[in-house]
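Self-study notes.
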Amino acid sequence: MATKRAGTKTGANGDVVVERVMTSDSFLTREIKKAPMREDHGALVADISHIPNDLKITIQGAREHNLKNVNLAVPRNRMVVFTGLSGSGKSSLAFDTLFAEGQRRYVESLSAYARQFLGQMDKPDVDFIEGLSPAVSIDQKTTNRNPRSTVGTITEIYDYLRLLFARTGVPHCPECGEPVSAQTPQQMVDTLLKNPERTRFQILAPVVRGRKGEFEDLLELLRGDGYARALIDGEMRQLSDDIKLTKQKKHTIEVVVDRLVIRDGIRQRLTDSVETALKLSKGVMVADFVDLDEKDPNRRQPFSEHRACPNGHQLQLDEIEPRTFSFNAPYGACPACDGIGYKLEIDPDLVIADDSKSLADGVIEPWGGGKTATEYYGHILQGLADELGFSMKTPWRDLPEDVRHDILYGHDFKVNVSYRNRWGRLREYSTGFEGVVRTLMRRYNETDSDQMKQYYESYMREVPCQACQGRRLRPEVLAVTVDGESIADVCDMPVEKGLAWVNGLELTGAAARIAGEVLKEIRARLGFLNDVGLNYLTLSRAAKTLSGGEAQRIRLATQIGSGLVGVMYVLDEPSIGLHQRDNERLIETLHHLRDLGNTLIVVEHDQETIEKADWVVDIGPGAGEHGGEVVYSGPARKLVDAPRSITGDYIAGRRAIETPDSRRKVSKTRQLRVVGARENNLKNINVNFPLGVMTVVTGVSGSGKSTLVNTILYPVLADKLNGARIVPGKHTRIEGVDQCDKVIHVDQNPIGRTPRSNPATYTGVWDKIRTLFAKTPEAQVRGYGPGRFSFNVKGGRCEACHGDGTLKIEMNFLPDVYVECEECHGKRYNRETLEVKYNGKTVSDVLDMPIEEAAQFFKAYPSISRYLDTLVQVGLGYIRLGQPAPTLSGGESQRVKLATELQRRSTGKTVYILDEPTTGLHFEDVRKLLLVLQGLVDKGNTVIVIEHNLDVVKSADWIIDLGPEGGDGGGTIVAEGTPEQVAQCEQSWTGKFLKPMLENAKNAN
């Protein structure tokens, strides 16, 4: 970017005239402000044709997917928001056209050799694009699922921390906590000479430490070298004596090198003795102060030329390098768990489901399977109770800690079992007791049955490694500290606290100079994570546990940290999973990225982000076939003037999502009650979910919403109602499950990973359509069954392309080219199958129909139209029946799943759980979705939604607001009740944003 320059020259009268040259940034701002608005076919577009080409991006003839030959110009180095209905073509323009072309041009600038490793980019269907920069996409693709990947490693903060600890850390002994250091013989001599005059001591050289053997040769060698005495197993012995050591016992032999008294002129002799002792025992020496008592801890003072514990504990740490602190390298990783931090083990919390029960009541869940098993284990436990002196009727929580440990982990004693069998005969026998956990673990390892393995795994959890307590590193590595904290302590701090710790770090001398640059990098990166609303995350958090929105914001923070200039960033809904409170910080971060000199293309539906953009492009007016046009392009403030923009209507208030006039009544008797939820950051809370109403679980990011609903509530309901054995998060119990008959979880995972999967196959409607085609007279004459109309199996499909419709041709050094199959011309079926028609349409024509059209076409068949109507209801009328699954967005996939569940006959006792269903949805789509969800509740079902979108929150009957903050500061219930009640709660962040919204709705009425 041009910088501001001031030139001076002398005028005619000798006056100094100052010329100011405007920066390109100021010039662009001025030109955008005065750009005239032009209306063409109902589209309102700001004319920036007069702006120089190097300050704008120009697209001509974009036709990707449903785009209708779009021409568009947007300013560079500005934040441009693309908005519009779901399926209108925003992503096609932003990702499939702009980003794809920017990426492709950059890759094409590399050599042919480099390109073969990068993979090739398809050229988007566009006439030309001008003014592009190298493009970086920050989307919501899930992060690395590798268990070794953490927030610290993906942001590279952990790499800098390793450097900091390696260069400035103070090593300690993991056993006694004493600082560990290596000393030179000179330092050892100086330390000993600091003792008072007349102090008597002897220099010992430990030649054998705790090793088995007779050591005859060694003792002979010592005698030959002229040594007279040695301390053998703590006893002073004359080496001239005949010494016999037991071969099987461990021995310690310390040779007396010299006996000394502190006085003037001793330095030379002491130095020689110290050097001799170090040479004899390979760098280790002990000063034994003979006048002190044997039991005095100060009697012996160890010294070492290597890193050694002053108290003589054995250490494994030979070097302190950055790799020493890596849990992915053998030098630093905990040997028990290989640096993973956890193992799959039987979790006592799952075995003991409810600690208020006693052993007699069957508190040990896996031992209460059948009558025989219950009786067998009951007798053994009774025998154990007699031996240890506890009662079988005492609640588990009241049993002493050691008794509970013995029951779970066993004991090396024999249990005497005595009982009467069903015929009254007395039976007595003696048996070992290995404990509940060990029994289950042994059976898990021994069984060959997959079913039994799955059964035992339902009592297993990723339990923190016993050796390192889940910290992934060796004890010696964890004993290296900076300012009293180990590297694991720093990684376990939330980002906010970690930043405070780094800022408060006061290093002196060489350490300060060494750590200066490293601390600067750590500070900056932690600061960026804090700015994008991730202050609650810890650096040790596994990457696989992050949500799509969190992962995207981490990448955003990493990009800001890289400080690149002149890049085009394409972002896909960065506000997902973000509470209104944190939205402002995110927008500030985006503005900061823009101010560095980058162009931001943001696909977004969030009102605040749209209003704070420099430029808005609204694609529409509808979705699918009805979209693909630019209905508005210009400054954000003028969007409300666009006649065809639905987005403009919502922002101007001409359209709105209405607040319900009344809330459904909540019944105290009909509810699901989660007792003692304590997974992740939940603080042992009890939560009531009313049945028969729409409940929204909300709260700031990281407050524990997903943990409560997805990790505890859903797995328990799925286990009890659907028979799915999923291990739930830590909790005591859930009451009221008997009032529901099934649970349906609608998440955003793709409906399929191959192009063969599509909405028709996923919803099951394709089977019915194939059956219908098989019943046509033509098909029956030819003897075609439903299988003939499948593009996945031999028979009716085109064998040239195996039913794909396209052929992939691999090109060396060029992108793979997909060409239409010449046999079937992309229709997927062979000629004979396509001769069968229903109402004039072939099976291929039906696959290519938009769902809206297909719903009309099959109206006469309720069994088919019911499926299709539901898809139209949830706002998916624009997608094609055979649209490949990978081309559907997360929001579209979620709605396909929702529609699949909706068309099933409702029993009125179903629980629907949805995780942020408004992802990727426009205001208008949210309105449609709410109509569907309210319809479900009207039938008596229960809908539980995790959501931040205020339009959904205000439409709820009941709100559970978690918080008040994220991470450690969350995990409690801040408020619960109707939206009106939550809006009155002072402590609730959701309430603060909800209050003005409800008041506006009230005033409008």
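Second protein, same conventions, sequence then structure:
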Amino acid sequence: MEDKRIGRSGDTPVAREVTADIPLESRDTSVWFKIRNFLQPSKVGLLIPAVLGFMVACSSQAAQFGWVPFDHVYLYLQAVGYAMLFAVLYMVAYRGVEFMRTRVFDGSKAIAGGETTTANSAVSPHKRFASIRRYFHFRYTECPSAIAADASILLCCWLPYIVLLFPGVIHFDTGDQIAEYYGMPLYGMNAGKIWDHHPFLDTYLYGWFATLGKALFDNYNIGMYIYALLQAVGFAFGIAWLLAYLGQTNLNRRMLHVFAAFFCFFPVVPMCVMSIAKDTTSAMLFVPWAVMYCKLVDSKLELTRNPWFVAAFALDGLLVALTKKLGLYIVVLCLLALLIGKFAAKLKVAMVTLAVVLFVIVDMALPKFVYQHINVVPGTPEAALALPIQMMARAAYDHPDDISDEDRKAVDDYLEYSWDEISQNYDPWLAVPAIGWTVKGKVPVSRFAKAWLDVGARHPDSYLQGFFCLEAGWMTFDAFSVKDQKIPKPVSVVMLPMTTSDTATYTYGMLQPHTPPTEASETVKQLYRTIVDTPGINIPFFMALWTAVLPGFVLYYLWRRRKEQRKKMLAMSKSDNAASRSDRVDADGRGNQLAASIKAQTLSAGRSLLLKCLPWLLTAASLYVCAESLSRPGRPSPTRFVFQLVLLTPMVIGFVCSGREQKPHQAEQ
């Protein structure tokens, strides 16, 4: 007979509750106890909404006025209000996620207890629309034909945007890259040189398609539109694979349909898909890389024994690193993080080796041995130092004379602009005027770092002001455009994808005359503005929802789940000790084996979930390296920076809602 202390047959480790060692006082069934138990989080977990509430309050003030009133009590009252709001939202959301993790839906029937359903189960469509509904039915299956079919559905839903946004949306930086490709001297470079400030691979890619359009249609824009179409196809296949991967999990089927509808109809997705910039190009490549990374974690790195998988994974990671500077660091950190997983040591070594090889190729070998042969000038580190330089610029703005002669010389010799110039050029919401386009580098970066620390020790308040003003757009829901208008005008901090090209007349405009916005693109713009200006409906469009609220909730969830798993492990340990003392063990030893299996799964589940969320979390963290975060008149929207995060968010929500451990009998197999 099966030992009932281990659990009933068919129970999952998460759904089963160990009650043998629960104190009697915790078995209260009163309404007040149920409410308190529903809302009671880990005490440490409360720090996450508390810190987030404080940062949102500070960012709201910084976005509106360019400074944070740390000496005013209303700032802290506002922070408490936000913290309480986030705490309640997170607690309720956590309970909702736990409910979803114990329910799997097959069509319209809910199955309690977490039994797995087949991936292709569906209710028979109505006969009148059978052929249409049969085609527009996502397969969620990881096979080439099914992924291609799902990708075609996505493209059909995006088709209005693909047509109306002709000939694609070329960003300012992209136009400059194409001009560089054709030999124009930009950014202080000699004619014919390509500066790797913008990744050289993107420059050659965009230039090649512009040349194709000129050769075939005598129009550079047509070539860029061809690239935009291919980019849309690439995104469709990547997203279809992401949905297929989620379809193989225990995810609630209705949630899976919601994710598919999100990718089909959320306007930001097709609008950014038709945008041509290094951020969207890298995101197109990063989505399949993130899926492969998660599959690697699921397999406990066993997929590294498949040479075809490793080749595709390494090549895609290399392309991600070559199309966006931050892509290299996200890929490398994700690979190094695999060291914390419970995987075979030699497989961990293989992944660390891959990380080192990618870093050496992109950051050392190419600049030293290849760039000189393809007319590429290596970039400088000013982009990665945008936030530290901006914080120093704020100190220079607030205290222009309070710096030692030694530190002033270090700043003047390292940065493009002197201490006095960064003080005069300082813009609270934009780092470019202070950091410039390059660094002099006459002194080592370590010497500049010492000067930066010295200034920060004198004026930590200025550094905080500089931080919150530059990063305000990621953590606020309202802002005022006070710099460009005499009368402050409230502006909702929402995602604003571009609908028309923004190219300079002296770069790409020299090759292809700029055309004014078309009636079709204006239609897309006005319809989009109608949506984001409608209260309630515009909630999913707020930037801070994706860049602050959701990352905060995932961290909160991971912490609470870790704490609860520890409690269950402690309860199991006490139960096992009691069983050992009473010698009540199954004759064949299956009870102990099952308990050991459950313990092993519980210990590794949290790490695996954290690793699978890591590409998304690092993408969110990388936003704080950007030179701006707020949408302002005359400046391109930073929405393109957030697009990769938006694409990966449904996958992470899927992990959270379906991240249950395997059943014991599955682990034994």
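Instructor comment on the second fold: Residues 1-27, 105-125, 661-669 have pLDDT under 50 and may be disordered.
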